[in-house]
């Protein structure tokens, strides 16, 4: 078992910005060992009053859209031009993507990871979306307590991880490619509806023209969505990570969004709603875990699930029967 510290040691290390302790605290938050969970809760309790002060940005897009190249360029821009401290976290449940974690490849984001103002944390391997989502939430708080004032949460633009990320960030940035056939294909409408900004990537060289026409097209499409509770109208921009162009307008959109929603109260309201969402989410998860770990359920599971598989018992009746075992 890896070395463990006391809650005070973890908390003091995180709050002083010690990266080794921050990484250890995140590892602890990712652990599923029951003894680690109690320790992790004690650490979180101590750091929580110091968390919450960052801007949390979700970044999504299909594989190949240029996410890691963009994050490196945009991240360096924020560090160099705005003096930000940036943490990059990833949600990449291996159940959805074979071949390891999204940030596992060491060649990704080389200059960013070498920058002392940046902290890059790969997605934990071998976990379900629920597990990754929970530990990413806690990692955000730990990074905030360690003094990072911008947090990127990266996810691949497939499956359900966008919804989970959307529930843990303030601003949701969707990266899209121009000229990949029908402009609105390949990405679900639901994901576009979540976006606070869409950035058309690779707007350089021969791609530039296609990117600007895609920009107009997406901006038109987004106008069809009704204005949400934030009162923010999503922006569409073009950028090139290669040429480092179009990065300032994206940051402008983020800061305008934050100013608007802090003024109209939506920023805080949404964070409160997100906290409630994760409370409910944790309760569901813990109920389920406790249910399956209950000794009586374990004994009966094979028989009852077999009866359901064979059509001898309805799933509803079987669930009720198993629940009765708990009382
Ligand atoms: P990810 O899978 O979304 O993380 O995408 P990557 O960042 O790995 O990029 C996918 C491919 O697009 C790579 O071959 C990059 O070199 C290329 N690419 C990324 N950004 C740009 C850009 O700004 N302009 C151009 N022309 N190509 C880019």
From TrEMBL:
EC number annotated for this UniProt entry: 3.6.5.-
Gene3D superfamilies: 1.10.287.130, 1.20.5.170, P-loop containing nucleotide triphosphate hydrolases
Pfam family, one: MeaB
InterPro entries reported for this sequence: GTPase_ArgK (IPR005129), P-loop_NTPase (IPR027417)
Domain of life: Bacteria
CDD domains: MMAA-like
Official protein name in the record: Methylmalonyl Co-A mutase-associated GTPase MeaB
Membership in a protein family: Belongs to the SIMIBI class G3E GTPase family. ArgK/MeaB subfamily.
NCBIfam families per UniProt: lao (TIGR00750), PRK09435.1 (NF006958)
Gene Ontology terms, MF aspect: hydrolase activity
Keyword RNA-binding listed: no
SUPFAM superfamilies attached to this UniProt entry: P-loop containing nucleoside triphosphate hydrolases (SSF52540)
Keyword vocabulary terms for this entry: Hydrolase
Species for this entry: Rufibacter sediminis
């Amino acid at each position: 078992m890896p070395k463990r510290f006391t809650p005070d040691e973890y908390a003091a290390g995180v709050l002083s910005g010690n990266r080794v302790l921050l990484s250890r605290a995140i590892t602890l938050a990712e652990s599923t060992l029951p003894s680690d969970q109690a320790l992790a809760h004690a650490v979180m309790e101590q750091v929580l009053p110091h968390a919450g002060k960052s801007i949390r940005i979700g970044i999504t897009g299909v594989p190949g859209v240029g996410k890691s190249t963009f994050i490196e360029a945009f991240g360096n821009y924020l560090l160099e031009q705005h003096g930000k401290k940036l943490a990059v976290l990833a949600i990449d449940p291996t159940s959805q993507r074979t071949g390891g974690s999204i940030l596992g490849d060491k060649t990704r984001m080389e200059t960013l990871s070498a920058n002392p103002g940046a902290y890059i944390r790969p997605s934990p391997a071998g976990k379900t979306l629920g597990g990754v989502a929970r530990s990413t939430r806690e990692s955000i708080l730990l990074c905030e307590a360690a003094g990072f004032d911008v947090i990127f949460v990266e996810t691949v633009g497939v499956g359900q991880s966008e919804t989970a990320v959307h529930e843990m960030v303030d601003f949701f940035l969707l990266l899209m490619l121009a000229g990949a056939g029908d402009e609105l294909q390949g990405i679900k409408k639901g994901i576009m509806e979540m976006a606070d900004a869409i950035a058309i990537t690779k707007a350089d060289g021969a791609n530039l023209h296609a990117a600007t026409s895609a920009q107009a097209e997406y901006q038109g499409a987004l106008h069809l969505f009704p204005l949400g509770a934030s009162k923010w109208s999503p922006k569409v921009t073009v950028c090139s990570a290669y040429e480092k162009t179009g990065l300032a307008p994206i940051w402008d959109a983020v800061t305008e969004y934050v100013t608007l929603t802090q003024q109209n109260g939506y920023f805080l309201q949404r964070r409160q709603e997100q906290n409630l969402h994760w409370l409910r989410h944790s309760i569901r998860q813990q109920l389920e875990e406790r249910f399956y770990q209950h000794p009586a359920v374990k004994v009966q599971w094979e028989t009852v699930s077999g009866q359901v598989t064979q059509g001898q018992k309805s799933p509803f009746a079987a669930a009720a029967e198993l629940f009765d075992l708990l009382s």
